[in-house]
Amino acid sequence: MKNNDNFVLRNTWYYALPSNQIKPGMMISRIFLGEPVLLVRDRDGKVSAMQDICPHRAVPLSCGRFDGQEVECCYHGWRFNSGGRCIAIPSLVEEQQMDLSRFDVQSYAVREAQGNIWIYMTDPNNPQPASEMEIPVIPGFDERSLRGASLRSRSVSQTDAARMPTHQFVEVVKFPCFVDHAVVGLMDPAHSPYVHRAWWWRNEQLHEEVKQFDASPYGFTMRRHRLPANGGRLYWLIGGGVPETEISFRLPGVRIEETTINNHRVVNLTAVTPISDTETEVTFALYWTLPWVGFFKPLIHVLVRTFLGQDRTVVEKQQIGLKYNPVLRLIKDSDMQAQWYYQLKREYARSVAERREFVNPVKGQILRWRA
Ligand code: FES
Ligand SMILES: [Fe+2]
């Protein structure tokens, strides 16, 4: 595979930021897929996003003010509501009233669930509605079920959802690479014994792994299996039972790993967002039903930082070689998931371009590798 075939998938949902980073009345300026985006959370708790460029003279709207309802540009005071509609141009005199909709800012579809904010990035050359593909949701961790029976009778408003993020832990790390390398690194089963070498994670000996994979919506799933004693050392420590795990991947770069210990669950959502062609953000969120896991939060923090730091360090080294644009060799079976990722991505782009249904190219099979 030649690495200049790379493209960034569009008309799809990307992880924007954890809910708790943006409080009601706040605005945050970010870059996603090379586009400046202004995220705002209004007084009612609803998150919206618009282009962070004033249509008048291009000053970033984030340089202005947000009063919890309207964004005001700092240059000439044009005002926009959270949907990006231009609602006031102060310099106009009475007789100059005009159709302000010509000055609207481009807006983005945004969804918020389970403590996460997602943004739909369209293809400007072929925009497709956001409804085609939904955001990833982890079953059993919806806002309601976590908040007890007393709230069950009424629906949970956006504000409630914002105040009660349902992931108990989140860590965001920037990787200095193109999105594909971050995604492939997420699903690469052969790097662990070399990159994540640590007493608490794995021992030095390689073991043969045999895993059944199936196609799943916009991706594939490693079928539920028992964790081997060595790989699951952490879970053995905290769980006491025989842990079972299932790992799924879906476009554009979302990995969900669910581990069950007796009747409890620990779920890790990792999502990859392209910031630019040379920068990618990786968000690692954890959900759990074991109440006392929270006790270990500081420890989990250190472990996750170490783990992601190891991945980032090797990606930094990878950049040295990638500068020369080499042909990259993929082998079987340990690189099969990487190959599936490229196939899924190409098929998604093609299905959108041809305005037809997505056909999952993954065929269920058993993969074997040593790790
Ligand atoms: S540049 Fe924003 S109002 Fe003029
Ligand atoms: Fe890794």
What does this structure look like?
- Helices cover 20% and strands 31% of the residues.
- With 371 residues, the chain is α+β, with helices and mostly antiparallel strands.
- It folds into 2 domains: 3-163, Rieske [2Fe-2S] iron-sulphur domain (Rieske Iron-sulfur Protein, 3-layer Sandwich), CATH 2.102.10; 169-370, Naphthalene 1,2-dioxygenase Alpha Subunit, Chain A, domain 1.
- α3 (179-186) crosses α7.
- The longest helix has 26 residues, at 297-322.
- The two termini are 24 Å apart.
- 32% of the residues are buried.
- Mean pLDDT is 88; it is low at 144-165.
- FE2/S2 (inorganic) cluster is lined by residues 54, 56-57, 59, 73, 75-76, 78.
Q: What are the key terms here?
A:
371 residues, alpha+beta, Rieske Iron-sulfur Protein, Naphthalene 1,2-dioxygenase Alpha Subunit, Chain A, domain 1, 2 domains, 8-stranded antiparallel β-sheet, 4-stranded antiparallel β-sheet, 7 helices, binds FE2/S2 (inorganic) cluster, binds fe (ii) ion
**Helical amount among residues, as a percent range?**
10-25%
- Write down the secondary-structure element order: EEEEEEEEEEEHHEHHEEHEEEEHHE
Q: Which ligands does the model contain, each kind named once?
A: FE2/S2 (inorganic) cluster, fe (ii) ion
CATH fold-level name of the largest domain = Naphthalene 1,2-dioxygenase Alpha Subunit, Chain A, domain 1
Q: From the 3D coordinates, which CATH architecture of the largest domain would you assign?
A: Alpha-Beta Complex
Oligomer: single chain
Uncertain residue segments: 144-165
- Radius of gyration, CA atoms, in whole angstroms: 22 Å
Mean pLDDT: 88
Number of strands: 19
- Count of separate structural domains: 2
Arrangement of strands in the largest sheet: 12-18-17-16-15-14-13-19
What is the terminal-to-terminal distance? 24 Å
